[in-house]
């Protein structure tokens, strides 16, 4: 006797309401199916049509209500990181932290190529959430050709004070294979403190070689990293 697989009306109604009906064949080869009269879904369709205008009106009302814009938070502290790298070329002056360092190579750049000051400027601008040094002082502008990087530093410090902050502390690392910076570190740090209008106790300067690895270690480039902490006045 052939077996019969029955799909109950409640199951058909539930499937129709989700607009997906899946009929799986029976594993019994002798199974047969019993069909039911076609269900009327007019009530479901009309309900959907009634809901659509209401949903659209609700979305329109939400869009028309503008959320009040809040001012940026007045943070007690801000941290910024700066990085810069320049290629070294023979016959150019090597300026680090505003100090002329005796060397047979110097930084190739649009301005004076002071890798440390550029790095510090970027750290301050980053802490303030401002564009980087290349956007504020673009190398496409002829007026910055050969410019003294102390100009960039003074502008960064002005922006820092204008925003209501002062320097908490600064930690900078110079990376170069040659020359040795030990004889010049205090002069560099003193000039950096003067430009930052900061006490020497909050300004730290380190110098590292690159163990003769890649362009830095081969005396073909110089790089610097700086981290600054700004404090609300």
UniProtKB/TrEMBL annotation:
GO terms for cellular component: chloroplast. Coiled coil: none annotated. Keywords: Chloroplast, Isoprene biosynthesis, Lyase, Metal-binding, Plastid, Transit peptide. This is 2-C-methyl-D-erythritol 2,4-cyclodiphosphate synthase. SUPFAM superfamilies: IpsF-like. Belongs to the IspF family. It comes from Rhynchospora pubera. GO terms for molecular function: 2-C-methyl-D-erythritol 2,4-cyclodiphosphate synthase activity; metal ion binding. It is found in: Plastid, Chloroplast. GO terms for biological process: terpenoid biosynthetic process. Residues 78-230 form the 2-C-methyl-D-erythritol 2,4-cyclodiphosphate synthase domain. It catalyses: 4-CDP-2-C-methyl-D-erythritol 2-phosphate = 2-C-methyl-D-erythritol 2,4-cyclic diphosphate + CMP. It comes from the Eukaryota.
